[in-house]
Amino acid sequence: MRKRKPKNRALLPDPRYNDQQVTKFVNNLMLEGKKSVAFTLFYDAMDIVKEKTGEDELEQWKKALENTTPQVEVRSKRVGGATFQIPTEIPQNRKRMIGMKWLIKFARARSGRGFAEKLAAEIMAAAKGEGAAVKRKEDTHRMAESNRAFAHYRGR
Questions:
Q1: Contact 64, 123 (CB under 8 A)
Q2: Environment class of 42 (CB within 10 Å of its CB; exposed 0-12, middle 13-18, buried 19+)
Q3: Cys staple from 49: which of 57, 90, 99, 130, with CB 3.0 to 4.6 Å?
Q4: How far is residue 59's CA from residue 144's CA, in Å, rounded to a whole number?
Q5: Which domains are assigned to the chain?
Q6: Concatenated DSSP letters for the chain?
Q7: pLDDT digit string (tens) for 76-88?
């Protein structure tokens, strides 16, 4: 077990939008350490979003991220020989990370030509409240709601 928690490192904001959240998203998007490729894919996707919607692409992305960010999750806990799914609140930074990872995961799973188009399609769908990432959030919330009876096991 660690002696102390590691310090949070400061992230540099991205060059185009000057936003740290975009850098975090691109870091999750990156494969095999190829950050410049990840930035290129993200910016291409944002250009596609702007072209197709005609609205501010960063606002669309933030709205999509907000729509895919879960508020609660279920965690397994063993109590007296039985395993219960216990709904728990999620810390703010973990909420955002889960939302980002779902957005990326379901964009990769989409069918389409290139990844930039897949990501753009997932962002536009999530901004409208549709898409697989939003569905995953709703499923998670539904599961937490159905297991609300076991919430009293949270403190043990």
A1: yes
A2: buried
A3: 57
A4: 29
A5: 20-153 (1.10.455.10)
A6: --SSPPPPPPPPPPTTT--HHHHHHHHHH--TT-HHHHHHHHHHHHHHHHHHH-S-HHHHHHHHHHHH--SEEEEEEEETTEEEEEEEE--HHHHHHHHHHHHHHHHHHS-SSSHHHHHHHHHHHHHHT-SHHHHHHHHHHHHHHHTGGGGGGTT-
A7: 888 888 888 888 8
128 band by pLDDT with thresholds 50, 70 and 90: very high
Angle value at C-alpha 127, between 125 and 130, nearest 5 degrees = 40
pLDDT band at 155 (very low <50, low <70, confident <90, very high): low
At 129, which amino acid appears? G
Token representation of residue 85: 């799914």
Which pLDDT does position 156 carry in this prediction?
58
**Using CA atoms, how far apart are residues 26 and 139, in angstroms rounded to an integer?**
26
What is d(CA 96, CA 21) in angstroms, rounded to the nearest whole number? 9
- CA dist 135 and 142 (Å) reads 10
